[in-house]
Design goal:
562 residues, 6-stranded antiparallel β-sheet, elongated, 28% strand, Elongation Factor Tu (Ef-tu), domain 3, OB fold (Dihydrolipoamide Acetyltransferase, E2P), alpha+beta, 6-stranded antiparallel barrel
Length: 562
């Protein structure tokens, strides 16, 4: 009995120790889970911070992988926030030190491409009608020399003219005028003196006319094949003399004042990275391209070695005249975010830690893929150049200054306008036509957009006949934008004008007091080249008119107009 009592005691002690260990282990696991939950309170999307989920997954709007939203930024200033190393790696966030200007000091960079020198291009044509008996130039890219045989053409007219020459040659003493007239006729068909003399001396008629290249160069287009019947003056080949070429560059309108004809520039290519091609500005287009807001700049380059090929991408650096080199600060365009009329960047304020802070800046001219900075950053500052939107989203999630909350008062207040009951009744009909137009944008149907824009235009033009009062400037501006939408055939261009149209339509609608139904002001932060753009909708569900099916659900309701 005593032995059994010892066994029972050991068993009871083992059970108690097991319960104690399990309780301790459970407590530790619970503590670890609580710590994990404290570190990651929820998961969100770097592009759509309004998305919040308790578990990892994909964003329901854009499909991007959700990232953990981590809390805790002790020891930081109120405007600063910290990212985890994991978030930095996932978003591929990169930073750059602000230092010397991009490219050569004090110069702006332009991108362009090599094209043929049109002033040296020439087309070889046939001077007689007939059939191509032989082609000695057979493919595009073949090089030809001036005086080289390029084709032979059989022509009944030429055959008869040669017979006339042989007859006139027997009469050249008695009828020299007739003889000379026949020779001149053959010269008009581009027969040389040597060819004519050969026919006359041999007494034999050539069955085919030989055509010789009039310039040296490279065949850029072959327009006929052997055996084709051609007419007088019909082109046979296009030949480009690539001894000199043009480099065409696009120049933004705010850079035009830095350039002048005859200015010396240096041109670089990716194919010959260490080689510099020098040339002078030969032409600056006097007409601005309305779509790209650029003008064409042309530089003539010597190409006797044949290194520069038409279609090749090139860049150039041109000395700026506005600032001294040591005063110029340039940052990559990828680092800049826009909040309406303001521009911001994110500074990495601690060299050894991923701590960031938003900074307002003032931009100058655009220089290729970079911007000149007039104020806001200094040489030696470290700024985010890749993953800028991710950093901004993190700032929003932590309640810090961001694109959506710059911490500054608006530049200007929303205009206050008064609208009469008569106007509101008429404008309500225009809103119905507008909603049809918005749905056409959602469907990305350029043809339907033009048709529905015409209907909205008629409705708004009729409104101008009633009491418009303060709303007139906004109605007139809306009409102008709708005209542009109706006339444009390109969907991207239509959407550009739709951005401006919505600014005026939303403003008027915000001052309406007699709407037939609630309307929702919705906004997509990625539209309008990531500057953000709004629109009106009769439904709360997001159906994005700026991207259509590409990102149909991108956006959120920012105001309800009842």
């Amino acid at each position: 009995m005593k032995k059994y009592s010892i066994y029972i005691g050991i068993l009871i002690l083992g059970v108690l120790l097991g319960l104690l260990f399990d309780s301790s282990h459970t407590s530790e696991n619970h503590s670890e889970n609580e710590a994990t939950q404290d570190a990651v309170s929820y998961y969100t999307c770097s592009m759509h911070p309004s998305v919040r989920q308790t578990e990892p997954g994909d964003c329901p709007i854009c499909g991007m992988e959700l990232i953990p939203a981590e809390e805790g930024s002790d020891g930081l200033l109120p405007e600063q926030f910290k990212l985890s190393k994991n978030a930095m790696a996932l978003a591929n966030i990169q930073t750059t030190m602000v230092g010397e200007p991009i490219g050569t000091s004090g110069k702006m960079m332009l991108s362009g491409r090599i094209v043929e020198n049109e002033s040296t291009n020439q087309t070889e044509v046939s001077y007689v009608s007939g059939r191509i008996e032989q082609l000695t130039v057979n493919y595009v890219g073949e090089k030809v020399q001036k005086g080289q045989l390029v084709a032979k053409i059989y022509s009944p007219e030429l055959y008869a003219a040669q017979q006339e020459l042989l007859t006139a040659a027997t009469l050249k003493v008695s009828q020299p005028a007739l003889y000379q007239a026949v020779r001149n006729k053959l010269k008009l068909w581009k027969l040389s003196e040597a060819q004519i003399d050969k026919i006359e001396s041999s007494g034999e008629v050539e069955s085919a006319l030989s055509i010789y290249a009039t310039i040296s160069g490279t065949v850029t287009e072959k327009l006929v094949n052997q055996g084709d019947y051609i007419k007088q003056g019909q082109p046979l080949f296009k030949i480009a003399n690539l001894q000199s070429v043009w480099a065409n560059f696009d120049v933004y309108e705010n850079q035009i004042d830095q350039l002048k004809t005859g200015q010396l520039v240096q041109v670089y290519t990716k194919a010959f990275g260490d080689k510099v091609f020098e040339g002078r500005i030969d032409f600056i287009d006097p007409v601005l391209n309305n779509k790209t807001r650029t003008v064409n700049l042309r530089v003539v380059l010597n190409n006797t070695k044949g290194l520069l090929k038409p279609g090749m991408f090139v860049s150039t650096s041109i000395k700026k005249a506005t600032k001294e080199a040591n005063e110029l600060i340039v940052i990559p365009a990828s680092s800049v975010l826009w909040t309406g009329e303001e521009s911001v960047v994110y500074l990495k304020v601690k060299p050894d830690e991923p701590v960031f802070e938003m900074k307002r800046i003032i931009l100058g001219s655009r220089i290729g893929d970079a911007f000149e900075v007039l104020d806001g950053v200094s040489v030696g500052d470290e700024i985010v150049t890749n993953g800028t939107f991710t950093v901004d989203a993190a700032a929003q999630l932590q309640g810090k200054k961001s694109m959506m909350n710059t911490g500054n008062e608006p530049i200007s207040e929303t205009p206050k306008i008064s609208v009469s009951k008569v106007f509101q009744k008429e404008f309500s009909e225009a809103l119905e036509a507008y909603l049809v137009l918005k749905d056409a944008f959602v469907a990305s149907d350029a043809v339907t957009i033009s048709k529905t824009a015409d209907e909205l235009l008629k409705t708004l033009q009729a409104i101008t006949q009633v009491e418009v009062a303060d709303a007139k400037p906004y109605v007139d501006a809306s009409i102008e934008q709708i005209k542009q939408i109706a006339e444009a055939e390109d969907l991207a261009l239509q959407r550009e004008h739709f951005v401006s149209l919505n600014e005026h339509m939303i403003l008027i609608t915000q001052h309406m007091h007699h709407l037939n139904k609630p309307l929702y002001v919705q906004k997509c932060p990625m539209a309008n080249n990531n500057k953000g753009a709004s629109w009106l909708s009769a439904e709360q569900e997001i159906r994005n008119p700026y991207f259509g099916d590409a990102m149909l659900k991108c956006g959120e309701v920012i105001q309800t107009i009842k």
